[in-house]
Queue: 2 jobs
Job 1
Amino acid sequence: MSEPARESIPPPRPRGFWAEAWNRYRRMPLAMAALIFIGFLAAVALFAPAIAGTKPVICKYKGRLYLPCLAYYNRGWEPVVFARDKFRGEYPANLEAKDPESWAIWPLVFQDPYRAVRRDEWPGLPANPARDQGHPSSRNLFGTTQTGVDVFAKMIHGTTVALLVGFVSMGIAATIGITVGALAGYFGGWLDVVFSRITEVVMCIPPLVLILALLAIVEKPTIWKMMAVLGLTGWTGISRLMRAEFLRLKSAEFVTAARSVGAGPGRIIIRHVLPNALAPVMVPITFGIAAAILTESGLSFLGFGQPPPSASWGSLLNDARSNLKMWWLVAFPGAAIFLTVLAFNLVGEGLQQATDPRLREARK
Amino acid sequence: MPLLEIRNLVTAFHTPAGRVPAVDGVSLSIERGTTLGLVGESGCGKSVTAMSVLGLVASPGRIEAGQILLDRDGRSIDLVGLPERQLRTIRGGRIGMIFQEPMTSLNPVFTVGNQVAEAVRLHQKVSRQAARARALELLRLVRIADPERRLDEYPHQLSGGMRQRVVIAMALACEPDLLIADEPTTALDVTIQAQVLELLADLRQRLGMAILLITHDLGVVAETCDEVAVMYAGRIVERAAAAALFARPLHPYTIGLLAARPEHRRAAADPLAAIPGMVPQPRDFPAGCRFHPRCPFVREPRCTAELPSLRELEPGHLVRCHYAGDLGDPATVPAEARAE
């Protein structure tokens, strides 16, 4: 036996495929900036009620602590005590009047995404200007809408909507696409024929038309139903890529090797083939998120989105149609949509480059 | 009772162009603790035979006939027609397999230790730590230098010889009774080849397992095998003890193979001897003896019309040739070369 002796220089730490990919991704400044921007958006989306709102983040009222800001996530989460004490959504004055002992921590910007702030609702703060008077100012950073709702607050809360649409609909699409593609590719035969035909049928359905049809039928069109439709129609590309990867990998020698040590089909699909097939579908998933955000904005712009009061970027653009002199209703949400879609596309492109097998080979 | 006995195995592929019998009536047997070499040119059905034993023949291939009897604690079970669930306990548990390409037979996204430990955990209910400890032990068994470090490395960080050792470690995870080695050294450097063969011989002795060694390298066979079976066009054409086969090959094909070895030349300047022609494609196997178009000893009309049977010419020495032992003088040009 003449194995090479232990080298004196310590070898680089072992790295897996994803660690290598991350290493390459990190060196792409544009893709990295896009990823950081998406991280920033995600933080904004998550903490939207603490950034802009008229409900305290946390307050002490009649001896107990409450988190009224949670109502922005789900209306049902607003503590009942405030409804019983007839706050009617106006916290600052009511807190003061009904319990002098109370205190509260407020969001960074006292503006509501769903209604105009009235005069002296916050001590000393004037009422939001309405109609075409709501130019951007120090009080309303991005101006106000026709009805006097603060655009900045709307956009902060709209981030949640945009990212939710992107991630949830693509999450549905990825789950279906990966499952269908993996099963069709691995088992082949009649299962492949059936799944491939189903995929082709679904490909023929234009999601926009389906959503419009659905919105016409369904009584309460919510954003969740829109996400479901986008997810249920958007998985075909992922499924076809996945199928191709599985066709290629199922005859790979390491799969035969895994079978020869007694691994069953479930284990081979999930543990051996899937991790090797995942890299190529990450790219269409990322592009899909961008497309879903764009679709939602487009539908809201056309007025087919979530019924008002909604805080979607697209619905702000819709508001702008009535008076194009209110440029701030176009510029800010437009820029937000543009930058977000661009960022997701840049991340997708970066992923493509970081996981490209040809580039990987070249580095060896 | 032999450890493994294959009887009249027929494995065929059903392609759009028709039925292709890649393995056509192969019978073999391997005793415990011995090494059987299965020799033949590319495409003669060696690997399909091995895959059939593990039930791993990929669609559209199918085992159509025959028995594969495995001795399991004194009881013989037929692997043909065994339900998939039971086959999985055989694979890796009783029969391990190693492959030709160590570059591709390890999963690129998992560490070496991870993969060896998985092979352990598939058959034994042990904790993660215990499986990892066993993986380390196995890497030591296959003599990988610095096994603690290798455990956490990825396949692309290892050399070809090292990877083949890892593949062997995986196959040995549950101490199988039989190790099928499908051209284990073909993709390796000559020096590494010798090391891997030496390792296999050593492991066979230490673990008392039998080895089915598939190769086209007669030098490897001469060094490591107790018995040899020569395959041609889906059939066994000669079977004998290794010493007997090399001393006195009986089938014209075996004679040709032995003559074609580079070391058989008298001087380095001599041209390499070759068997003219190509192995026929399974869908157009010739009638009669399948070797007759390439056989220098061919005699009309028997060789072209009648399929020879595998007969025991000498004790333990079987050959599938009408005129074995009495071949006469070779024709100057075999039929296929004449046709060209």
Note: The interface with chain B takes residues 1-6, 11, 14-17, 188-189, 251-254, 256-264, 267, 271-272, 275-276, 364 of chain A (CB under 8 Å).
Job 2
Amino acid sequence: MIEAFQNLFTPPRHMILLVLAAWLGLTLAERRSQRHGISSEDLNNITFYALLAFVIGGRFSYILQNIPAFSKSPLSIFSINPNLFDTFGAIAAAGIVTFAYGQRKQLNIWNILDALTPFFAIIAIGLGLSHLAAKTAFGTPTTLPWGIDMWNEIRHPVQIYEILASSLILVLVWRFKPGPRPGINFLIFAVLTAFSSLVMQSFRAEYEVVFNSIRQEQVITWLILFACFILIETRLRNPDIIKKENKTG
Amino acid sequence: MNRTQRIILYILLLIASASWIALSPVEGEPVAAGTAPQAGFAAPDFTLTTTTGESITLSDLQGQAVLVNIWATWCPPCKAEMPAMETVYNEYKDQGFMILAVNSTYQDTPADIVPFAEGYDLTFPILLDETGKVTIDYQVRSLPSSFFINRQGIITEVVIGGPMSEALLRTRIEEALK
């Protein structure tokens, strides 16, 4: 079954899974956006501009990091090949555009993030499915009975762990009621995602090592977890933030 | 849940996470040593004959960065990326870069291969995968598929589909040449 799925969505067709996840995620997010004070029209606009910024920002950031390669063949800037892409630059661009749109429309960024939480949760499932289809983000060798044959070894099915964990998080997210403060729903989603990611990274075959014996990806995830707890507490405790939010709506 | 309970929960979760990180096994080489057509693994070795009758073995090229490009004459993106490959081959060959353009002959028309290479003035070797063994060993499911291999024989990047632009080729070749 896994092989049939991998044949159906063999790269570059695995990108279809991400597009489907984005579409489904947006559809679900729209249904609940009013609860967070964001109209479905605003949510659609935010997603449209953020996705546009994601694509353009990803390419632009890649170009900036590889100027000598592009200066010899400037037309490569318009190449349709998706490999000329920097994901961190893309995420930063999408974040900036979302923030700018929110400011312009006087929407609270935390409300926007809460409204987009189902979208992010479904994208996480889509990412796991695309990893499985492309046989990337694969696991370490194992003798466990549920291991899958990948790259000439029986390995931990990390991509399936990822899909299951993300699906469970989606179910929890879908059951969320609006939090006591804007942003809490999104931050809890971030905590759950960071925690599951931190656990699963132990089974990944690809990693960078820091301090001789620690996986760098886990350290980064731990710091994200820590930052989320600080932000949750700040959101719940700081009366100045709450007053300011009440003023800006 | 009051603030004190929340803070206790955060601390417990952070300690549990830190313990999990400390207990996570870390081996010397992140990706298991072995051969597979995937970034981080040693490239599967092969010996093929070129259109001029010369025999080329991939492992003999260790010490050079190699691009193994698997293609067919009927595939439009394969055609579209050939001029860019020829340009970068001429640009980097003196720095220890080689292109092995493996024609997936078992799913192509052999008579079309030489005229195709001549039509694009290709100077890098065109290898003939007549039995399909290399195409199968490299688990190729889309054409073109390109495997960038560093001087140690490890795959640094796999690009599935095309066409690859000159800029993409340059960035990946420079990575493989490091």
Note: The longest helix of chain B spans residues 3-23.
